[in-house]
Amino acid sequence: MQIGSEKNAVDLNGVRVMPAVLGPEEQAAIVADIRQVCAQAPLMRLETARGKKMSVRMTAAGQFGWVSDPRGYRYQGHHPAGMPWPPIPETVLAVWRALSGTERQPECCLVNFYGEGARLGLHQDRDEADLTQPVLSISLGDEGLFRVGGLERGGSTRSVWLRSGDVVVLEGAGRLAYHGVDRIRFGSSRLLPQGGRLNLTLRVVT
Ligand code: MD3
Ligand code: FE
Q1: pTM over 0.85
Q2: What are phi and psi of 69, to 5 degrees?
Q3: Could you give all domains of the chain from N- to C-terminal order, each with its CATH number?
Q4: Which of 201, 202, 203, 205 to mutate to test ligand 1, by most ligand atoms within 8 A of the CB atom?
Q5: Which of 33, 160, 164, 205 is such that its CA lies 20 to 30 A from the CA of 198?
Q6: Does residue 45 carry a pLDDT above 90?
């Protein structure tokens, strides 16, 4: 597999954004694999602990998936409908091996799908047991406006458009940064014929 260079990487408050790491063929191969994941473990609109449905649709691959319902949010070993999460596709694991910088294997590939109008509010990712392990994100399809702040809510933020094929690695100070997706440019990419944005985040959970 051909993984692009890291020479155009930009650092947003400790969050390493690597533009155009994945070429069109690799992107298409990953999308085909994620379609299989979604066929086995359907995308769903989870409810937050406050009882509001999220606009982003989610599923997962790997030993664990992240779920939220009125009881709270957590990692769990099966889809809310009961089936096990499918294995993380080899095409996705190859990106982790090339760019994560850790010897550990990812235990969760969270799949986020943004249809027209979907967004993800500012939050931290801190449900994982070992916060020294990186998180790696792969953007596919339509462009998304990604916002990154600092370690506290309410501080200054910076924004960057994430495009199809971009990879973001969160480690060190960036690992606990507040972040979110303000909006997508629906229909800006032809990778997904029906439009929308897919984001995969690979995480070590235990
Ligand atoms: C910065 N996803 O799934 S990916 C998420 O585009 C999530 O769907 C966004 O935030 C998306 O939790 C952003 C980039 C990302 C992922 C995890 C992070 C940035 C992060 C963890 C810590 C800091
Ligand atoms: Fe996050």
Answers
A1: yes
A2: -155, 180
A3: 10-203 (2.60.120.590)
A4: 201
A5: 205
A6: yes
